[in-house]
Amino acid sequence: MGKAFYNLTTPQKSIYFTEQYYSNTNVNNICGSVIINDTINFDKLCMAINKFVEHNDSFRIRITLENNEAVQYFQRYTPFNIRTVKVNSNLDVYKLEKKLANKIFKLFDSSLFEFVLFKFSDNHGGFVINVHHIISDSWSLGIMVNQIISIYNSLLNNNSIDIPTNSYIDYILSENEYLKSSKCLKDKEYWTSIYSTIPESASIPGSKKESLKTLSASRIQFSIDHTLLERIQNYCKLHKASLFNFFMAVFSLYISRVSNLDDFVIGTPILNRTNFKEKHTCGMYINTSPLRITFDNCNTFTDFLNKIAVNSLSLLKHQKYSYQKLIEDLRIRDNNIQSLYKIMLSYQITKMNENND
């Protein structure tokens, strides 16, 4: 029986285009580690990871070329071994994670994930996962951790394994239906009307300008004091706005000040999982939406926050229409359009069970 081939979904295509531009790099790797603070039965943990892959077909996606076009198929599950590395400290785990993250996946006709178990001298430990973005997003990693730990606990206690078998194929088919629907046309009309004019791109003065081909990056990490966070949460509750709305409003004000613009775009990743089943299915769903920022009729920060909240709600209603398709639509009118934004704000919450630590 021959393989069934499926088109890449729109979110997958955005990753594929990035992969083609930054070929032979690790730009699309998602890597993380899970530490279990208890004595571990590593044989059963290996079995749990295998069971997870068996029940989640997105981890068995293979990318191939058909008539010079990238398509995907789903490899039949076969049990696989997972190597175990001995470590002495959390620093060793970090080094292992960093080493795994630097792996360059072979994109075509190859497995696009790798698990590695790690063991401390007292027999506790965990696993590191490295996965290509074309088959997974960060939300999927939350699903993965919860399911693996649940399966592992069931194996330890000789309980039946009860996990859903949701298929990414369902999303592929539903997106195909969406692209032929009146909803897609309405979403297109919404976005093209928002961008009937194209604002100037905002940037942060003084930021280091690198070649588009570079992958260099840096991170500065801050933690918000609990008291301040509580005040922010109370303020948002009072004004019926989300924390995302609040941070987007603050960030937009900053960008406006440093760029001297009052009309610009900030990109933001959107979960793009619109029903219960999709929220419990592993795979690449994330879409990026361009939020247009203007300051008309805003005399106070609260006015501006409310405007952000209203515009964000409209954005979510039309989130299934991809940024890539919007750019293609706009280029019909002006083929000089490269992008609508240079700055992004990502607000992510990945939920894990309390016993995953």
Could you tell me the strand content as a percent range?
15-25%
- Average pLDDT across residues? 92
Numbering strands along the chain, what is their spatial order in the largest sheet? 2-7-6-5
Percent helix: 25-40%
Rg of Cα set:
22 Å
Task: Quickly count the helices.
Answer: 10
Number of strands: 9
Instruction: Please give the alpha-carbon distance between the first and last residues.
Output: 43 Å
Which outline best applies? globular
Indicate the low-confidence ranges by residue numbers: none
Structural class: alpha+beta
The largest pleated sheet is described as:
4 strands, mixed
- The topology string of helices and strands comes to EHEHEEEHEEHHHHHEEHH
Describe this structure in words.
Helices cover 39% and strands 16% of the residues. It is an alpha+beta fold. It has a 4-stranded mixed sheet with strand order 2-7-6-5, with helices on both faces. A 3-stranded antiparallel sheet has the order 1-4-3, with no helix packed on it. Helix 3 links the parallel strand 5 and strand 6 (113-119). Helix 2 packs across helix 4. The longest helix has 19 residues, at 138-156. It is globular and about 60 Å long. The mean pLDDT is 92.
Summary, kept brief:
It contains 10 helices and 9 strands.
